Amino acid sequence: MKIDELYQIIADRKAAPQEGSYTNYLFDKGEDKILKKVGEEAMEVLLAAKGEGDQRLIEEVSDLTYHLLVLLASRGITPADIGAELEKRHQPRPPQA
Ligand SMILES: N=c1c2ncn([C@@H]3O[C@H](COP(=O)(O)OP(=O)(O)OP(=O)(O)O)[C@@H](O)[C@H]3O)c2ncn1[C@@H]1O[C@H](COP(=O)(O)O)[C@@H](O)[C@H]1O
User: Fold this and answer.
1) Contact 18, 29 (CB under 8 A)
2) Residue 84 vs residues 6, 34, 78, 87, 90: alpha-carbon distances, Å
3) What is the pLDDT of residues 11-60, one digit of tens each?
4) Which of 10, 52, 78, 88 has the smallest C-beta neighbourhood within 10 Å, fewest atoms?
5) What's the whole-number mean pLDDT along residues 89-94?
6) pLDDT tens digits along 69-80
7) Per the UniProt record, which residue ranges are transmembrane (predicted)?
C-alpha cells in the first residue's frame, strides 16, 4: 500500500468514524495517546534494528509509519506537506567525475 493511500484511509476515518476502527479509537483517545504510541513504536523500531532481523524491522517501521500518519492526520498535516519540506531541503549534487 502506498503512503498516500493509507493516509487517505486514516483521513476518511477522521471524517467518517467507523465502529471498531483502531484509527478512530486513537482519535477518540486524543493526541497524548497518539504521541505515546508514536514513542512506543519508535522504540520498537530501535529494538528490531538491534538484532531482531530485517522482517521485524519492516514490521516495526510499518507500525511507526501508520502511527505517524495518524498524528499528522489529527493535525490536518498531509504527506504532501512533508514532501514539500523534504523538497525544500533537497540539494542536487553534480555528478561525480
Ligand atoms: N496500518 C495499520 C496499522 N498498523 C498498526 N495498527 C494497529 O496498531 C495497534 C498497535 O498494536 P499494539 O499492540 O502496540 O497496541 P494495542 O495494544 O492494540 O493498542 P493500545 O491499547 O496500546 O492502543 C494494533 O492494534 C494494530 O492493529 C494498525 N491499524 C490500522 N492500520 C491501517 O489503517 C486502516 C484502517 O484501520 P481501522 O481504523 O482499524 O479501520 C487499516 O485498513 C490499515 O490499513
Assistant:
1) no
2) 19, 24, 10, 5, 10
3) 999 999 999 999 999 999 999 999 999 999 999 999 999 999 999 999 99
4) 88
5) 92
6) 999 999 999 999
7) none
Question: What span, in angstroms and rounded, lies between the C-alpha atoms of 66 and 55?
Answer: 17
Q: Are 62 and 54 in contact (CB under 8 A)?
A: no
- Name the CATH superfamily for 3-81: MazG-like (1.10.287.1080)
DSSP 95: P
- Ligand 1 midpoint to CA 22 (Å): 5
- Domain residues of the chain, as ranges? 3-81
ipTM of the predicted assembly exceeds 0.90: yes
Our answer on whether the CB atom of 21 is closer than 6 Å to any ligand 1 atom is yes
Please choose, from the candidates 77, 79, 70, 78, the residue with its C-alpha nearest in 3D space to the C-alpha of residue 29. 70
Distance of CA 16 to the CA centre of its chain: 20
CA-nearest residue for atom 7, ligand 1, is: 22
